[in-house]
Amino acid sequence: MKMNGARMVCEALIAEGVKTVFGYPGGAIMNVYDEIYKQDGFEHILNRHEQASVHAADGYARATGEVGVAMVTSGPGFTNAVTGLATAYMDSIPMVVVSGQVPLSLIGTDGFQEIDAVGISRPCTKHNYLVRELSDLPRIMKEAFHIARTGRPGPVLVDIPKDITAEIGDFVYPNSVNIPSYKPTTKGNNRQIDKAVSAILKSKKPLLYIGGGVVLSNASDLVRKLADMGGIPAVETLMARGVMGHSNPLLHGMLGMHGNYSSNMAMSETDLVISLGARFDDRVTGKLSEFAKYADVIHVDIDAANIGKLVAVDYPIVGDVYGVLEKMISGLEGKIKPDRYANWREVLERYNTLHPQSYRDSDEVIKPQWAIERVGELLGEQAIITSDVGQHQMWTAQHYPFDRPRQWINSGGLGTMGFGFPAALGAKRGCPEKTVINFTGDGSILMNMQELITASEYKIPVINIILNNRFLGMVRQWQSFFYDERYAETDLSYQPNFKALAEACGGIGYDVTSKEEFDAALEDAIEKDRVAFINVAINRFENVLPMVPAGGALYNMLLDDQQEEK
Amino acid sequence: MSDKTRRVVSVLVENESSVLSRVSGLFAGRGYNIETLTVAPVPDTNRSRITIVTKGSQRVLEQITKQLHKLIPIHKVVEHEEMVEKEMVLAKFPITESLADIQALCDAYNGEIVNVGSDMIIGMAADEPIRIKHFIEASSRYNPIEIVRGGVVAIER
Ligand SMILES: Cc1ncc(C[n+]2csc(CCOP(=O)(O)OP(=O)(O)O)c2C)c(N)n1
Fold first, then answer.
1. Where among B79, B94, B129 does a domain terminate?
2. How many domains are contained in chain B?
3. What ipTM was estimated for this complex?
4. Catalytic residues of A
């Protein structure tokens, strides 16, 4: 069929089953918007900032497991999108971003709104394309989706000059992809898997170290099964919360800088780390030379470059966690019993009893941890929880009772403030039957607050719970601990009226200072079914604990007991 | 810390405009060292060969190979220690230097005099990288005006 390049983009999106595109128009992408106007194969959501469009596509992808799609114009539209690309890249989120570019004839001339999008995004995309011939466009769109969702997933940028979207040509959407130089290893070497199975059978103190890769490969059920078969204790990274389920007795919670004491002690004493889709991030390992010092390491990862990058690995297995686990489980079947590591589990239980994950509640002021646990009690498994970046993010990861993968959505790798609200919009669009809560801070929420309008216009009723400490809290915490309480540029006492702000944009706002008000506001917000800001006054100097100071060994934690009251 | 090893990495890539920037950008962005880099099309294909001489610890060298593999337009990464390596160099000398001496020097390093003008002599050599280094040292006696090295090309043994 003959059509212009712009229409081809739309047809490709429809052929890929895309239901929602998040974006923002402008000169170089106008041809495509003209075709979006004429079609009804997918909806377009006009965010009020390109960064938000990309985060929304990202949130959509994380919540649904499908490829998220965003669309932006050239120049500033694209540069606004870069933070979103980098955020998705660091967390391996499948996404396709289409950007407009100046016409081919103007490329390289410093034309109006020209920027080298492919050059800028190279280090923060899995792959990117500048379309130079209309005849390449269908193939490139097909490849972009394929690359985004296969292997280690990631964002792919397709940059399309304006004359290409105007040009008319034949459209045949390919039904298969042939990229000879791209064949991700997914199976996992059988011999290596057998060796890993023997290592598990030999181990006295094995530990499952579960990362975000398990979520991406939809392997949570298999991880739970493996854990149950042998009664193997488990720890989760920030990105893996929900994989084991909070009430699973084998789970010791999160590990790392703000991990549970028992999780970090487990990592320090284990004799066999079974790493599944985790990448030994510095926020997880602390001081590398002390990390899992007594352990052999099984490392299952779809990205060979993750294996041996930071930690020496004894049993490297390159492959998709799902397929590898199937084989591991069948290798262990009949050879392992749930009471096998009972002694080891007891040791860890004792650590947990010694320093459980806890906080000191108060009758005078709302503690952030209380608010998070309260939402957990009321909504539990029913809600999707997103967050911004800071203390509130860590408290949420520590205290929300996550029960399933894809329930917890946050920017782990890049740590992008401003991610939570637009990601919540995307998640809600992808999973409309869920209640979507964004736990945020009074700093972070302002970084994409324009999305109040988007949420109102499209009736995407996400609830932002602002845990308001009138500080850039996480930075303030470091200043308290490591900079002699010199609070350089972290005091946010000068505040907007959050309630009025929400209401000015057609949302609903609440100022909350007591537990009763909190419950009432949450209930009302859910019932009103509108975008909401619940502004919760919390105690200003609450710290995220326990904590491993940056670069310290995991077993040297600052524990809650040592915290002085402010 | 750990000892650095020299390594020749030969990369077979799809012949497309951005591929060199992907490779060099990867090295720059991840802090890997590039000593020399050459690139040219592979005859009768739509592929190119990029030959990179780098230095790094074992862990870094392993990462270089793996990270290169992840780039979509890269077909193959060869980093054997068993490679035949050659490098080329051009050197420009003042005409006042002895033509015969320079001729002899070039001969000794698989080269020749490639140009003699009114005020200068240009010689070339093509040899193993270490011998190219020796050639450059030896030529310093003849007051070279300019020396241009070509970078290493390599082929598996
Ligand atoms: C875009 C961006 N800028 C700066 C930072 C550095 N940073 C990390 S946490 C933080 C404070 C966040 O404050 P707030 O949103 O109020 O959350 P709190 O820590 O108080 O819960 C800052 C500034 C960041 N992560 N992202």
1. B79
2. 2
3. 0.90
4. 50, 112-113, 162, 474
